[in-house]
Amino acid sequence: MDMLTTYEGEFPHLKVKYFPRPCFQCDDPPCTKVCPVRATYINEEGIVAQIFPQCIGCRYCMAACPYTVKTFNWNRPYWPQQMASAMNPDVSVRPDGVVEKCTFCIHRLQKAKETAAAENRELQEGDYVVACQESCPTKAISFGDLDDPNSEVSKLKRSPRAFRLLEELGTEPKVYYLSEAE
User: Fold this and answer.
1) Is 170 within 8 Å of 162 (Cβ atoms)?
2) Running DSSP on this structure, what letter comes out for residue 13?
């Protein structure tokens, strides 16, 4: 995941801040509006998703994204043979010539929904965890249902410390940050 890094002050009183930059999963995403083949769209969960075989690689969506979180695959992916067993079979390998971005681990959501359905129950908080949250060494990433007022992330977004990047653009990003406590 890309990081936005900011610096305040000067050495030896330098303060560095890191902001993880996944796809911001906007409610009003500019990227979906410019795709001439509708390869980028909002799915039923509100995730800005992509249909890789439909993408023609024009990169209009990259230019339209104010958060600059989309990347173009110039080459076929390559991994050393020793890493073959470490590859996640649930994640599709994106071909060259297409644009890709964070999907909020849509493959994990699908698996969690299938498990919940097999157990004849609704999806519950914690059933679906994104990889960045799971692997964050400082546990600084929280994930959940923003539409559920009782979810942990919904409570965090109501904090006076919560803010969104480039909120003035009206894209309604689903990614919130918490400023430092005073």
Assistant:
1) no
2) S
Residue 14 lies in a domain: no
Residue pair 27/45 in contact by the 8 Å Cβ criterion: no
Domain containing 141: what range? Answer: 23-77+88-178
pLDDT of residue 182: 62
- Using DSSP, state whether 179 is helix, strand or coil: coil
The total domain count for the chain is 1
Residue 59 lies in a domain: yes
3-state class (DSSP) for residue 153:
helix
Over the stretch 164-173, which tens digit does the pLDDT of each residue have?
999 999 999 9
115-174 pLDDT tens trace? 999 999 999 888 989 989 998 888 889 998 899 999 999 999 999 999 999 999 999 999
- Which three-class secondary structure state does DSSP give residue 3? strand
CB neighbourhood size of 74 (10 A):
8
